[in-house]
Amino acid sequence: MTTEPTVRTVTLTIDGRRVTVPAGTTVYQAARAAGIEIPIFCYHDRMPPLGACRMCLVKVDRMGKLQTSCTLPAGDGMVVSTTDPEVIAGQEAILEFLLINHPLDCPICDKGGECPLQDQTFRWGPGRSRFVEAKRDFAKPVSLGPILALDRERCILCWRCVRFGEIIAGDDALKGFERGWVSEINTPFTLPVESKFIGNTIAICPVGALTSRTYRFRARPWDNEPVPSTCTHCGLGCAVWFDVRGGEIVRTRAREAPAVNDVWLCDLGFFGHDYVASGERLTAPMVRRDGRLTEASWEEALDLVATRLRQARDRDPRRVAFLGGRRLSNEDALVAARLFGEVVGTPHRDHRVDAPPGGASLEVAWGLRAPLEEIGRGEVFLLVGCDVTEEYPILWLRMKAAVDRGAALLLLHARRLEVRRHARWERVVRADRLADETVSLAEALERGAAAGSPAAPAVAALAAGRGVHVFVGRFGLDGPGGGAVLAAAARIAARSGGTLHIARGKGNDLGAQRFGVLPGAGGWAAPEILQRAAAGDLDVLYVAGSDPATAVTDRRAWEAARRGVGFLVVHEAFRSATAEVADVVLPALVLPEKDGTVTNLEGRTLPLRAAVRGPGAARGDREIFSLIAARLGALFTYGTGDEGFAALRAAAPGIAPGAVLPVAPVPARSADRTAAPPTGASAGGAALILAPIDHLFTQGATTGRCRGITALAGAPHCLIHPDDAARLGVEPGALVELATEHGAAVLQARVTDATAPGQVLLPRGFDAVAAHALVRWPHAVAEVAVRPLAAVSAGSLP
Amino acid sequence: MATFAMPESILLRWAQTPGMTELEPYREAGGYEAARRVAAGELTPEAVIEALVASGLRGKGGAGFPTGQKWKFIPRNAPVTYVVVNGDEGEPCTFKDRTLLEGCPHLLVEGVLIAALTVGARKAYIYLRREFYRARRTLEAALAQARAAGLVGRGVFGSARDVEIVVHSGAGAYIAGEETALLESLEGRRALPRLRPPFPAQAGLYQRPTLLNNVETLCHVPVILTLGPQRYKDCGPPALFSVSGHVVRPGVYEAPLGVKLRSLIFDYAGGLRPGRRFKAAFPGGSSSMLLTEEYLDVPMDYDSLRVLGSMLGSAAVIVIDDSADMVEVIARTVEFYREESCGKCTPCREGTIWATQVLERILHGRGRPEDLTLLEGIAKGMTGTCFCPLGESVPPSLVASLRHFRDEYERHIAGAARDH
User: Which CATH class is domain B326-419?
Assistant: First the structure.
């Protein structure tokens, strides 16, 4: 019989109350647990104590000096006072010190109304100032990058933002400079701040020193109505508050969710809401007349869509296909699956619009195979073709904490990841070598790596076989030889007793996957839908919650499909590239305007709450599907709340609000597969190949309409290795033309060893540069010629 | 003045004997014998520590912690242990470590070897103040000689023990003399003091157990082992005092611990300039509370000064005669701490700038009567609230000056009132 390990506790007295807490608890935490408030500035409960601001002073019996309660471990029998006159005097002194150089510009400060310094001055501060000198003055504000602004005179040097970068994000984005009374926060080398998480520093700043350009001066906190919802950008489903003012989301904040994002968000989450209120939202249906999209009534548009669907169904239901799902809610996805599966009767449904025909991401269900909390307890993380901070930033915070505890981070990719300095092992190879490298690692693990061999550190970590998590990302799955990458990763996971995660899917892709937006029996996957459309095998192509004109990885495949299909229907929020070529465009709500649920990458069901109303006559996707179903003779009642959830549960038994319903494990694979060689590139070492990659900050239909994200994304660019740049005469930052046999693009060259030699990396998601026009299926990369363009004089005209 | 015969020096003589920067003269005079005995196992770690405890040696950097006790704290079974030498010597008017380094660097090297062999460290770092250019040269030369002679590096003294010694220069911050800030600086970060616990003995450099001693402290170690703790104690025990300010012969003096302040000033340092009266002195560097004439007969030892609210600190006596304006003395002193505050904690960062602003205003004829209460208030707000001893050094002397030399403040303020 085993006994539960007993947690040692200590009992102390705080302000006359006996408090029992686990040993190791600080006096501050013990007091808080007992409901006794001690003022703090530098302490943040997600970081170890610092003891710098000196605000949390308490008096402890038999200790001469006042003690900082945030750093003092509670001791058995300790007698603590938070109200002793000496404590009050000490706290008043600290507040007075903090205030002497703090501007009293609360009426114009964004923090006013939610400012710890303001609140604590009101509660603990001296009534009047004894300070008659001139306050410290700085030019204001300092720009610390595209988003972040610093009003230095407001900064009380609590070091929270600096420590966030050191301890939580691991990016050292902000640092302290100078010393003493001229200390200030800045970025290393005063370069624009490099972080995916800088919004958190604004959130934890205890004064109004750090602000965002997007929210600065836009609202007073008490005018905002906070609406709890879920972020639907990357697919991890972070809990957020949408702060709404005047019918517009003015700010996104992290909502505490220990199992998902804890109290953090990434900057895509923080600054990715502007698009909702964009003036370019579609407000009325449009129907193509005489070759032009013209506004129409809902009746007219829906009747037309229903008529064309009915005609196609009557001819052959299999001549209809549905694409999309990433931007649908679970409820939308379920109704879409029913409309097309049951009412129209077609098996051709797929949400995997951005999957290429040969890629391994069509062969396996997407999603993580363990909850984030369990991943956070992992001891080895192998990332194969998965750029964690560019794709799933919040996942990185769990890994960072684990790495600090001693976990091993192993990286295998065609680019250097920004988290590489936390890695125990890193291998950067050209995209067409990724499959071979993954296979080599699997073989080394199975056979044992020779000590001192390059793979030895990775093999040693994996062979230890405890808490191993292998992540295969989009680059791994859909790059050259994706099938081999997946098979090798599965071997590695199997050999190390680890878990294989398919880090694939954005938005609510997992909800679409769960609720039936996948090919039915005999149905075609997304690439085949497009190929069949091009061949004239489809009458109607129906798109919702996706923008295939930019998402399909071969633009010509999309264009051919569009040409080949008689009727294209699109639900869209913007006049996107897909909407532009549609026959009917139905104005749709976006996810922050919807009530319902989404499914995150873990398979967790998360709530959506409509933060704002949609513009004009825009309607929810589910409502649109139902109106069409009704015209086809099917009555969908879609309830909200419990009733709606019951319908979801009927489709996916086992789901529960906030809980994880696991995605099925990746099936063990028997046969290995060989990598498909990329076009031409394998022939000569001198040839450069072009490989598209994913970035967090982009300029697409939604992100391009978010001021902050557009600014963070910067100009469209490609990454080229210094050796190649030197050989080709490409100066850093210069404009270059990338030409493949399929197309050309002009964009900025960033010369960096973040890419392997012989390879140009091209971020997707910039509408101005069509990465998907330069590569053709079935290949994932293309041979590319890089031509530097002559600099254009920036001077004024004569 | 009665003639005064300085006692024979047993520590300082090493630094004052010409040629002691070289290895051979040092060895001929008996140098490195103690280290050899430790390396050869003739003196066990326990015996070394026992001798240090018996000698009563206390840290010479300022805090005065019993050295033997500190060495005992280092865990014996840790896989990696470091020795770090604090040669930052930033305390104003302290120059004994520099004197030792420039005069007899081998004494320190031997002390470091003994420390490393005793606590089981394979690597030692000597952290020097940035401005110690000459000291660094002599020390590097001595290390090269010792390394060539097989005393430093692999297999020291022909034993199986390795002791590597690395010299590192700081970047010019006073706070780097605080031991945990020194460790931060040595690791390549800004010199900001760390939270304690854990203490360096548990988790110091790179989070490994670390023995941190001042230069002079380690220089005492070979002397103690050579003489034996009893004879060492009989010689005073010896202590180095840096005497500066308004005295005729400023300099480093070796005197028995507990020597009277009066004797240091008037016997050792030759007294004040003709016609001048003693006004005040900082007994242990500018961080120690200044003392007035009535305390001239205080014994210069740890406990006697602590009882008075001051401290022996780095044993740097700064003498101030009646030609000085005490408001200016204090303003300059607080200004030093304002410049050297690291900025980590609120009361030190803000208190030093505020107090300087008020003092400057008084000096510039814009003082107000209520400024004296205000200065006392600022001092009180800094007392017991700062993160590290830097900020805590400011209030005692500020308060003492307001108490003992209030008339000087009032004269400035009254002058201000007259002028307006």
Answer: mainly alpha
